[in-house]
Amino acid sequence: MKLVCLITAALFSFSTIAAERLEIMVPSGNYVSFIRNTVVPEFKKQHPNVELVVSNDEQLDTRMAAGDNPNIYIGVYGYQPAHLAKLGKLAYLDKFDDFSALINRIDSHFLHQNFGRTYYIPWNATTQMMIYNKALFIEAGLDPNSPPETWDEFLIAAEKISALPARKDGNKVYGTVFWNDVLSFGSWYWNLLAPIYYNVNQGNYQLLNKYGTDVIFDKPQAHMTEFISLMQRAQKYAPPTMEKSFFSRNIGMWLQFGFGWKASLTTAAGKPMVIGDDVGIAPIPVMKKGDTHYSILDGRAIMIFKNTSEKENLSWDLINLLMRDDINLKANIELGQLPTLKSLKNHEYFQSDEAKPFVKQLDSALLSEPHAKVTDIADILLSNYARAVLKNELTPEQAVSESAHAARKILNEK
Question: Is residue 89 a contact partner of residue 115, using CB atoms and an 8 Å limit?
């Protein structure tokens, strides 16, 4: 009897210790420091007996393969919740008692269900717009307060800026630039090209159908061929890589600027660039005036890995803390992100010259595709995109046809 009591006490002690440790996995860098410095102390107030451990996501796949999952994971919208839910790794969030109360505080634009359930909470958001160098516009005889609205205007401006003489240090001036260095990054880089594609087909077509069972980018009305042809023309006015970025002051326009990258303005060549003074913000161009200017809707998604009910409930408490107005606002400001909470949209911070255009753009942004295999499809498309746009090995028609054929083979795999 004494032995049984000792074993029972030991098991109780072990379970108590296990329940007192919670791990949140986040992107490396500022996310780690924000969680440690701001969130951990607040969570400790609510759960003084729980140790909240912070880790970065560099080893997520390796750890999952070993069955060593974190409790909470902050990943990205789109394919990650779909992929992890399909693997059976995630707890669905609809089951928590106060789920509706939290969801009702979030703009529905940021929400999406996978397999009929909610597997993530949108912590913050980001989108892309065009920034342009006002000084180069003036030098090229362009109106710095009237950026191009259409692709025809964009290409004319890019040509004029590219015709400017080299700088005193010998560096050439380019009309535009694309982040071709990261073409191998698959769906991450496709998200930087996708807004241009959406503005060619007015946001009616992404890569896959809504079920993720077939590609739709090869349909004539998706205008993928026109998109690749447009990029071939634009690339003539751009360097082959981002070795010289927009912040070198030798680039006229950059179509892939996310709000979270505004810190790069402070490291610009010579002195910091200032939004409004020497840098303008504008929507990504469209095919004709009057069209809607689309962009991508991306951001950080909070997910809970399956565990005991006790661990999952603690994880849900942490999500509610992360979505608390004051904590969420601090996160957006420190991490350079945009709000998903209705209550923060009109906060004075998001009404600044540098933030307000991005907040407005969110209304016409398309959610990153929520399909597990979209990363594989993006890899295929970008490979043929590079062959057509950078190497001139394929025509736009060939690039689309070969990509669609290879993509369907992957989608039809059992």
Answer: no
Listed in sequence order, the residues at least 6 apart from 321 whose beta carbon sits closer than 8 Å to its beta carbon are 39, 42, 43, 46, 327
CA 8 centroid distance within chain: 48
- Please, are residues 172 and 250 in contact by the beta-carbon 8 Å criterion? yes
Distance, CA of 414 to CA of 2 (rounded, Å) = 55
- Residue 160: how many other CB atoms lie within 10 Å: 18
What pLDDT, on a 0 to 100 scale, did the predictor assign at position 263?
Answer: 86
Give every CB contact of residue 9 below 8 A, 6+ residues apart in sequence: none
Mean pLDDT calculated for residue range 400-404: 98
pLDDT in tens, 16-28: 444 489 999 999 8
Instruction: State which amino acid sits at residue 247.
Output: F
Cβ 159 vs Cβ 172: under 8 Å: no
Q: Give every CB contact of residue 63 below 8 A, 6+ residues apart in sequence.
A: 69, 70
Within 23-127, residue ranges assigned H as helices are: 30-34, 40-46, 60-65, 79-86, 99-103
Separation between Cα atoms, residue 161 and residue 142, nearest integer Å? 9
Q: Is residue 356 within a helix (H) or strand (E), and if so which, with residue range?
A: helix 356-361
Residue bearing the bigger pLDDT, 329 or 2: 329
Q: What is the pLDDT of residues 207-247, one digit of tens each?
A: 999 989 999 999 999 999 999 999 999 999 999 999 889 99
> Residue 146 — pLDDT band, cuts 50, 70, 90?
very high
